[in-house]
Amino acid sequence: MAKQVPDTRNVGKDAMTAEGTVNRAALPAIFNPEDLNALELALRLKEECAGSTVYILTMGPQRAADIIRDAMFRGADGGYLLSDRKFAGSDTLATSYALSCALRQIGADVIIAGRQAIDGDTAQVGPQVAEKMGLPQVTYAEEIVQVKESSLVVRRRLDRGVETVECPIPAVLTVNSSAPEIRPQNARLVMKYKWAMIPSEVAAASEVAQRLVEERDYLRIVEMTAADIVCDEQQLGLSGSPTKVKKIENVVFQSKEAKCLTASDEDIASLMVELIASHTLG
Amino acid sequence: MANFFLDNKDLKYHLSHPLMRKIVELKERGFAEKDLYDYAPQNFEDAMDSYQRVMEIIGQVCADVIAPNAEGVDKEGPRVENDRVIYASGTAENMKAVNAAGLSGLTLPRRFKGLNFPLLCFVMANEMVARADASFENIWGLQDCAETLNEFASEEQKMKYLTWVSEGATCAMDLTEPDAGSDLGAVMLKATWSEERQTWLLNGVKRFITNGDGDVSLVLARTEEGTTDARGLSMLVYDKRNGGMKVRRIENKLGIKGSPTCELVFTDAPAELVGDRRMGLIKYVMSLMNAARLGIGAQSVGLCEAAYREALKYAHERQQFGKDIIKFPAVAEMLTNMRARLRGARALLYETSRFVEIYKQYTHISHERSLEAEERQEMKFYNRLADGFTPLVKLFASEYANSLAYDAIQIHGGSGFMKDYACERLYRDARILNIYEGTSQLQVVAAINGVTKGTFMEQISRYEELCYSEAMQPIVEQMKALRTRVEAMVAHVEVVSKDAPQFKDFHARRLVESVGHIIITCLLAQQASEVEEYASDAKVYAKLAEAYIVGAEAYVLNSTADDVALISEVHDQF
């Protein structure tokens, strides 16, 4: 699973609209960085398990087909774009619902996604998909250490160290940026897959492109609408999204006087008292 | 995110030259493979789009991997363990990245798993790689050896070696020996036919071999017992997996420290003959060297780019007397000259690449079918230009790499002398460029015939007849006038050298460089006619050209046969 996101790492002054929402037009759309780490793990898994394939599932507007192609240029076999106006306005709950419905239809032994997307930073979609599908999940994954007959041994990167766990498959993995960097695009794959398209792109494409997509089935990226998945439409899009954005504020950090505390019990106790008094805690 | 292709509009300009249509047509043989390979182009636009995309990939790998590794590679360098070369860790990482990106066999035919890209793309890739790390360009650029195999080896050899190179095998060309450097005719490494093993066996020592421990080596060896000159030499291809070769040591060099320069000992190492016996140096190595010279041209231009960027960046960052030093005319003038030389060398590089490409493609086509009369004529035409321009680009670009690296340190002032800035590495790396694959002096020897036999002057006349923008007209007129003056210089040298044969050698460099300056100015004027942005480069270069030629003219025209005595004096001085 991957997401196309606005590139919030290179934010200029036009990055936000007057209403406080992200100005998507001013920011280039990119492959969510941790999803690239996830893709790298998936491609390594493919290399290790002969005969396995890697497909990208993404939900978004039609231009999100770009990240499916990008993944194919790096070694993925194909992809699915979940795209429909009915998905518009989805929060993480509605998104994970739609994705899990699609995944049930597509079928996968291992579902790998980035930990979180840089436009929302929720880190909820991966775990929610696992819950909805009733699958075990390994979060903060950074390496698949071993592939066994019906399980994976995965190393997780946690705040204060690493943990190696074994997990039965099918399973969902969400991947940290500490995982290996994505490999570069491959020249031959770029030339092979640059014509890959979703059906709605084919209509507007050149004659040559149309012929190629017609002749070569590996160039067809699957486009799925709400009608193509078995789902309860009430749980999609805005109607399926309990999250309501009340207000967006620009938070400006103002540096105040810094206070230096030691690790002594005394200092910790006085900090606790102060935080409780200011209602920061409790 | 940085990208060495996208951040350099100059490259895109050269990639989209009008001659590309002809080049792509020839290279793709009318797109005959469009339905045979899933990555073959459908038409011209498709091919160009693919070139651009792949150049972008290379630009990305250069910026993300190779350039950040360069400093570490320079410090760590390769080492020898158990007779084998171990690359610096950064070099190994670079290798992994370029292989993952599928950048091997860039120009090789698809039936050998290559990308079948034009030479120009390979040259451009080399330029970018060299900008990132000149020492890695040595290793990666050596895949060009496969082109020589593609031209002269048997189909069976091609299937084996070219396919392997496309899959990432590295190459070496084993020419130099302790007593055979510029004078390769003196090569003594022996190749003897073994009836028992039914193979050629190599015995002897090679020295100064770049990437000597590569997977595939082209070895120049003496197959003809009892001979001592070039006519007894043949070319053999050696597969490292067959054993028999040890790396005795690697050199500790001034620059390009990431590139292992090896001394190799061959002991009954099995090898295969390439092409015909006795043609090793006369035919095959000449072809190999021409390709390698173009490669050094690319490496040099890449280094020029790196040096110019380092200097420009520092000139904007460094403040003295209360302002950025770029605000001082003395610094800005240096940078302006640097940019003109950089872009001039690049213009010459890609012009040469196009000539070589068209000539080479006709050569390949002539192996498939007989050429039409018109095609044969064209092949001859471009062959002549390729032979003339190749030493010219090697000469100019490598000398400019040195002068730009020198200027880059100068702009850095005292800081540039310290190890803290990249410019000191560039300065060290540049120093070999005008030495290896033929010194500048030897490039002059190779190019002087082009001056005296008319190749260059004819080409300059063709340039003069092209359409130029109004702004460039005065420059073209200036070049016409300079051309006439250089012709007078050449005539003077020809006359005097009738009685004093060394007189031509004495002035050869001045003549070759004078002609080269005019050619480069014409190329920049063409560019400026299409894209206004190049106007200042063309104007600056024209002034540099005139200043040089006026100086050379003063020397040459005031020179008599007696001057030859000046060079003989040093003979007795030691």
Give the largest chain-chain interface (CB within 8 Å).
A-B, 14 and 22 residues
Number of strands of chain A: 10
Oligomer: heterodimer
| Beta-strand residue fraction of chain A | 15-25%
What's the shape of chain A?
A: globular
Label the structural class of chain A.
alpha/beta
Question: What characteristic shape of chain B results from the CA principal axes?
Answer: globular
Q: Strand arrangement, largest sheet of chain A?
A: 5-9-6-7-8
Question: Largest sheet of chain A, if any?
Answer: 5 strands, mixed
What structural class do you assign from the helix and strand content of chain B? Answer: alpha+beta
Tell me roughly what share of residues is in helical segments of chain B.
55-70%
The overall average pLDDT of chain A, rounded, is 91
Count of alpha and pi helical runs of chain A: 8
Uncertain runs of chain A = none
For the termini of chain B, the CA-CA separation is 57 Å
Q: Distance between termini of chain A?
A: 38 Å
Element pattern of chain B in H and E: HHHEEHHHHHEEEEEEEHEEHHHHHHHHHH
Whole-number mean pLDDT of chain B: 96
Main sheet makeup of chain B: 7 strands, mixed
Percentage of β-strand residues of chain B: 5-15%
H-E string of chain A: EEHEHEHEHEEEEHHHEH
